[in-house]
Amino acid sequence: MFPVISKIKTILVKNRKLLENFSYLSIIQVLNIFIPLISYPYLLITLGKDVYGLVVFAQAIVSYMGIIVDFGFKISATKNISIHRDNPKKIAEIVSNVLFIKLCLWMFSLGLLLLIVFIAPSLRENILLYIFSFSLLFNELIFPQWYFQGVERMKYITLITLISRILFLVSIFIFIREQNDYILVPLLNGGGIFLGACVGLYIMFKKEGILFVIPSYKNAKVYFKESMPLFLSNAVLALKDKFSVIFIGASLGMADVAIYDLSIKVMNLFMQPIDIVNATIYPKVAKEKNIPLMLKTAKFTFFGMLIIIGCFYPFIDFFISLLGASLDSAELYIKILLISPLLMVWSLAFARNGLIILNEYKIFNIGIFLTSAFYGFLIGLAFLFQLDKYLLSFVIITVLVYAFELLYRWLALRKLKIIS
Questions:
Q1: How far apart are CA 324 and CA 407, in angstroms?
Q2: How would residue 326 be classed by pLDDT, with cut points 50, 70 and 90?
Q3: How far apart are CA 177 and CA 136, in angstroms?
Q4: Is residue 328 within 8 Å of residue 385, measured between CB atoms?
Q5: CA separation for the pair 264, 178 (Å, rounded)
Q6: Is the pLDDT of residue 1 over 50?
Q7: Is residue 302 within 8 Å of residue 410, measured between CB atoms?
Q8: Is residue 91's pLDDT more than 50?
Q9: Alpha carbon distance 312, 342 (integer Å)
Q10: 331-358 burial, b for 16+ CB within 10 Å, e for fewer?
C-alpha cells in the first residue's frame, strides 16, 4: 500500500508544473463555458430567439476577423516563448514582433468588417451591432495569453479571465432590461475583455520585465510565415461551426441560429477539457518532442470523455429545459454533435502535439486544404439536394468534417512512422 502511495506522490511531484497548469487552464475554460451559459437563459428571454440569434450572427461574422488577428500565434508564439524562455533578448523580440503583427492584422480586419457591412444591405441595418461586436477582438489584439502560457504563468490568465468574465456577467443583468438593449451585449462583453487585456499587458511588461523593441521587417516576416499554417488551420476549424451559422441565418432564420448556437455551446462544453489537456502538455511536448506522452495522454482523455459523455446523454433534455424551454428541438442536434469531442481527442493531439511540434507544416497544410474542400463539397451537396432547409444537415456536416480531419491526420502520422 505504502509503495503505491509513494509512487503516486513521486509522479505528482515530477509533474507538479503540468498539474498546476492543468488546474489553471481548467478554471479558465469553466469560466469561458459556464458564464455564457448562466447569461444564456436571461438573454434568450429578454431579447427573444430572433434578436438573440442576430447577436450570435454578428459575433460569428466578427469571429472570422478574430481568426485573422490571432493568426495562430496562440500556438506558434507559445511554442517559441516556451523554447526561448531563458533568453530575455529573444523573448523581447518574439513579444514585440507578435504584438506588431497583431496590430496590423487588427486594423486590416476592422477595415474588412466595415467593407463587408457597407456592401451587404442586410448587415448595414445593424452596423452598430457589428462595430460593437468588433470590440471582442481586443482579447486577440492585446491580451498576451500566448506569453503567459509559454512561460507557464497560467495563474495570470486565470485571474484576468475571471475578472473580465464576471464584469460581463454582472453588467448583463444590470444593463440588459429589454429587447432594444441587444446592442449593448457585445459592448459590455468587449469592455470587460479590454480591461482584462490591458491588465495582462501591464503584468507582462512591468511585473515580468519584458522589454519592447522596435520590430524589424525581417523578423516580423519570419514569425508571420511560421504562423501561417496555424492560421489556415484555425480558419478551417471555424468553417465547421461558425461559417455554418452564416448559412443557417441566410437559409433558415435567426431562430434556428439560436438553436444551433445552443447545440454548439454544449458540444464545446466537452471540447474544452480536450483543449485544456493538449494545451497543458504542449510546452513539454514541444520542448522534448515527447510523442509517447502525447499518445498516452490522448488515450486516457478519450476514455475519460467517453465516460463523461455517456453519463451526460440521459440528462440532455433536462439540461436544455434549464436553458430555455423553447429550445427542446436542440436535443437531437446535441446528441449528434457530441460525437465530435471523441474525434477531436485524437485529431487535436495528432495536429498540435504531433505534426506541429515536428514541424511537418507541409503535411499539415495539405490536410487543411483537403478538409476545406471536403466541407465545401458537403455544403454544395446540401444546397444541390435542398437539404440546406434542414438544420440537421448542418449538424451532420459538422461531425463528418471532424471525422475526415481525424482520418487524414492519423494517416499522415502513420506514413511518417510516428505512430503504428
A1: 36
A2: low
A3: 21
A4: no
A5: 26
A6: no
A7: no
A8: yes
A9: 14
A10: bebbbbbbbbbbbbbbbbbbbbbbbbbb
Contact 240, 406 (CB under 8 A): no
Choose among 366, 362, 393, 364: nearest CA to 378: 393
Give first-to-last CA distance, the chain, whole Å: 36
HSE-CB at 57 with a 13 A cutoff on CA atoms is 27
- Residue-by-residue DSSP string for 110-162: HHHHHHHHHH-HHHHTTHHHHHHHGGGGHHHHH--HHHHHHTT-HHHHHHHHH
Grid coordinates of 221: 516576416
Give pLDDT tens digits for 184-241: 988 888 888 888 888 888 888 888 888 888 888 888 888 898 888 778 777 766 665 5
Amino acid at site 415: K
Task: Work out the angle at residue 261's Cα, subtended by the Cα atoms of residues 369 and 160, and round it to the nearest 5 degrees.
Answer: 90
Q: Which CB contacts under 8 angstroms, 24+ apart, belong to 50-53?
A: 50/253, 50/254, 50/255, 50/258, 51/179, 51/182, 51/254, 52/182, 52/254, 52/258, 53/249, 53/253, 53/254, 53/255, 53/256, 53/257, 53/258, 53/261
- Nearest by Cα to 248 from 402, 54, 68, 62: 54
pLDDT(12) > 90:
no
In the prediction, which pLDDT does 18 show? 64
* Locus of grid cell 436571461: 42
Question: Rounded distance, CA 48 to CA 43, Å?
Answer: 7
Query: If residue 189 lies in a helix (H) or strand (E), which one and from where to where?
Result: helix 184-202
Residue type, 147: Y
Q: What pLDDT score does 4 carry?
A: 44
Q: Specify the pTM.
A: 0.68
C-alpha neighbours within 13 Å on the C-beta side of residue 416: 19
Output the CA angle 408-292-400, nearest 5 degrees: 25
